[in-house]
Write a structure and sequence with these properties.
Mean pLDDT: 89
Order of helices and strands: HHHHEEHHHHHHHH
Number of strands: 2
Radius of gyration: 18 Å
Structural class: mainly alpha
Strand content: under 5%
Low-confidence stretches: none
Distance between the termini: 55 Å
Number of helices: 12
Length: 259
């Protein structure tokens, strides 16, 4: 299968990412804060990528008409449903992004930069401009800018590959180690954070990962060029994620050494 060939080609980058020190490094609340204040931007960027796919592959204009591959439409809409309107620990509907911001509040992390950025977007400010003038950490800014470039190109198969192999395929393996480190150590301060992580492990590992792979298969079809681009885009996405986690560690060291 072509999807297995993609996996074989990106395996070294994937393993480098999953072996990153960031996933075993978090052992106190200060590190949790630095991690969350960076990672929240990737949580937002995840939704941007998903909604870009939904715009590219489904009918969302004022008048509905059949658009694209019905199988792809179903796959995308099912993932959107789970990410944009999941349930919190009390059974209330919530997006994963909003849940994450609540988890930051509970943990004592700084949510002002991401909240101000969202407010700018709601006021009509261009996303790239809002990002550049935000107080986001520099590593997070670069990570999100790379994703915005992918979304602006509006190539459905490229977005699907980045979403699948640079996001969905990684989440369960990335988060398991963090949950192990935090669940018992900080049960009251990080209850929402561990709930968010466990929810992503459950949903993305059991359901969304497989759906995303099927979406890549449908969108790339029998085109060698699209499959080659899927491999290239996935490798870049994985490297961008590595760079983000490295920036997190560097930011923490700068804060620790600051006078």
């Amino acid at each position: 299968m072509k999807i297995e060939f993609v996996k074989s080609q990106i395996l070294p980058a994937r393993q480098e990412l999953l072996n990153h020190q960031a996933f075993t490094w978090i052992d106190d609340l200060e590190k949790v804060h630095v991690f969350m204040e960076n990672h929240v931007w990737a949580v937002w960027d995840f939704m941007v990528l998903l909604k870009g796919l939904q715009r590219a592959c489904t009918s969302i204009g004022p008048y509905w008409v059949p658009k694209g591959n019905a199988e792809v439409r179903r796959l995308i809409n099912e993932i959107v449903f789970g990410e944009e309107s999941d349930l919190d620990q009390n059974g209330r509907a919530i997006s994963h992004f909003e849940l994450y911001v609540q988890a930051m509040d509970e943990a004592g992390a700084n949510t002002l930069p991401i909240r101000s950025f969202i407010q700018d977007l709601q006021n009509g400010v261009d996303a790239k401009l809002a990002l550049r003038q935000s107080q986001a950490p520099e590593g997070a800014k670069q990570f999100v800018l790379e994703t915005l470039e992918v979304v602006e190109r509006n190539v459905a198969s490229e977005m699907a590959a980045v979403f699948t192999f640079g996001r969905e395929d990684l989440i369960p393996d990335m988060f398991i180690e963090i949950v192990r480190n935090l669940k018992e150590k900080f049960p009251s301060e990080l209850g929402l954070f561990t709930y968010y992580l466990e929810r992503h492990i459950e949903v993305d590992g059991d359901v969304h990962g497989a759906l995303s792979e099927r979406m890549v298969v449908e969108l790339c079809g029998n085109s060698p060029d699209l499959w080659d681009k899927a491999i290239e885009s996935s490798k870049i996405a994985l490297q961008n994620r590595i760079n983000l986690w490295t920036a997190v560690l560097e930011q923490y060291e700068e804060l620790r050494l600051a006078p």
